[in-house]
Amino acid sequence: MDHDKYGIRKAIKEDCESIQRLIQELADYEKMPNGPQLDPKTLEQDGFGIRPFFEAFVAVEKESNRIIGFALYFFTYSTWQGKSLYMEDIYVQLQHRRKGVGLSLLRAVSQAALSENCVRLNFSVLNWNSPSIEFYKSLGASDLTEKEGWHCFRMNRAEIEQLAQCKA
């Protein structure tokens, strides 16, 4: 990364509007423009409230002081190995890619995992996103669907509510 042009720092509450804008850009790139349903205020509450649910790093273009990328993560727990970090999203604006910014964000997340003594750094990648898949593999990441047969599942709010009401 060109350290004269870009910097990486821990996100602060005042960054939430920029992070939300970048989340929308990521959703557009992932062909899911209607996916994001969070506003900056929700990000502020969820990331910087009494009980933060996530942490983030931002990439800043030094000349303009504009946030041009982010990595959002949270801590999880493996019943097999212990503390883990899950990186929910990492994104760098197209015009700033291939300059080491994404790698620097990923390194910052890796350092956060190590500082908490995590044994895993987990994340998901869409199956059609070959450039990202190859990038992560070049860094030593394993595709768990290929290697171990793990599939990711999700229950949305309606399913959670329905399950919570079931009587055994």
Order of helices and strands: EHHEEEHEHHH
The number of helices is 6
Question: Radius of gyration, rounded?
Answer: 17 Å
The counted number of beta strands is 5
- Summarize model confidence as the mean pLDDT: 91
Strand order of the largest sheet: 1-2-3-4-5
**Helix fraction bin:** 25-40%
User: Whole-Å distance between the termini?
Assistant: 55 Å
Regions with little confidence, pLDDT below 50 for 5+ residues: none
Major beta sheet summary:
5 strands, mixed
Shape: globular
Strand content: 15-25%
Q: Structural class, from secondary structure content?
A: alpha+beta
Overview of this structure, please?
This protein is of the alpha+beta class. A 5-stranded mixed sheet has the order 1-2-3-4-5, sandwiched between helices. Helices cover about 35% and strands about 25% of the residues. β4 (about 80-90), α3 and β5 (about 120-125) form a beta-alpha-beta unit. It has helices at about 15-30, 40-50, 100-115, 130-140, 145, 155-165; strands at about 5-10, 55-60, 65-80, 80-90, 120-125. It contains 6 helices and 5 strands. The radius of gyration is 17 Å and the shape is globular. The model has no long low-confidence stretch (mean pLDDT about 90).
